[in-house]
Amino acid sequence: FTALGIETSCDDTAVGIIRSDRNILGEAIKLQQEIHEPKGGVVPTLAMVYHQTFLPQVVKSALDNARLDVVRDIDVIAVTRGPGLAPCLSVGLNAAKTLAIVLGKPLIGVHHMEAHALTARLTNPELKFPFLVLLISGGHTLILLAHGINKYTQLATTLDDAIGEAFDKTARLLGLPWLKGRNGGPGAALEKFAAAGDPNRYQIPIPMTKEKRTKENPNMSFSGLKTSINILLEKENLDLRDFQVKRDVAAAFQATAIRHLSDKLNLAFDWCKERDLALNGLVASGGAASNKAIRTSLEKLAHDKYNIELICPPPHLCTDNGLMIAWAGIERYRVGLIDDYTINHIPKWPIEELGTISTASSS
Ligand code: ATP
Ligand code: FE
């Protein structure tokens, strides 16, 4: 069967069409970078207006791209139900509900972070539950134990900023121009500068290493990193007109963020080991998982230290896209998780609540 997935949780308007045998049939995406870059970040009400403006065209483009007829060829309509920006979610959800009810097709409301996680099962068909998941994106930094579809244990989260947010804020502090296009934005710009920088020229403290509780607490913290960069810039009176300074500060930030992630992942692996859990892999997904330095160090950690496979979707499937929603729709539909045509969005939605939330509108 074939699913059409709609994603409007943040600033990208994305639609993907995929078949249950993993055949990618078509997709379309409308980015809003040029709208939000001058504002310094995503403005929710503006993002909503642009979703309203472009979503119908993006749905049509994805269908045209796949050379499919929605009435004849699409079996399931999937859509991001949350978490995300409320005004933005509602645009996608209303479109999906209307399409589904009018065409008489099943509707699947998708948890955006479950979709990021399940993307690994799209790209790696042999990946079986349970596996460990690191979700690193603009709004989340999560370490999850994936038991099955709709069933996750959260081992860790960030106590403040998400890692992608820290990349974005640091890019802004350094005055970096956003990288254009898919897999662009401020985080990708920071990666580009860091790649040409010396991570050892400036020292930045690794978050949470001073606290004793860190030893058993796998939670993370990324707001202090941005503050450390701010302090560094002021204390050393760094000249940001010097591009090598920008590159070296970016490299120091990125290396420290990676150290922090690795420290905490080690604790999560310990947690699993204590419980004799036989993990089938480490999945890394979400926008920041498109970062090559992060991927390389995770690969090393998984392979060298834990002898486990790292499954990291290609960059264009790590950042927000419609295919991941369509695929999550397929996975959920297969196990009978169909939603009511009256469901509402859930802007704040802890992933552990999956499986406890009603499929109807009252939730
Ligand atoms: P969430 O998935 O938490 O709801 P989101 O959907 O807005 O957030 P994604 O599209 O999954 O986020 O990821 C976007 C985030 O990923 C941004 O914060 C961005 O800076 C970060 N990001 C993207 N590319 C890179 C990169 N190359 N290096 C580091 N961070 C990156
Ligand atoms: Fe996302």
From TrEMBL:
Query: In terms of one coarse class, where is the protein primarily found?
Result: mitochondrion
Q: How is the cofactor bound?
A: Binds 1 divalent metal cation per subunit.
Q: Which UniProt keywords apply?
A: Acyltransferase, Metal-binding, Mitochondrion, Transferase, tRNA processing
Coiled-coil ranges from the UniProt annotation:
none
Q: Which InterPro entries match?
A: ATPase_NBD, Gcp-like_dom, KAE1/TsaD, Peptidase_M22_CS, TsaD
Q: Which residues form the Gcp-like domain?
A: 24-327
Reactions catalysed according to its record: L-threonylcarbamoyladenylate + adenosine(37) in tRNA = N(6)-L-threonylcarbamoyladenosine(37) in tRNA + AMP + H(+)
Which cofactor(s) does the record list? Answer: a divalent metal cation
One GO term (biological process): mitochondrial tRNA threonylcarbamoyladenosine modification
Q: Which SUPFAM superfamilies match?
A: Actin-like ATPase domain
Task: Outline the subunit composition.
Answer: Homodimer.
Q: What's this protein's name? A: N(6)-L-threonylcarbamoyladenine synthase
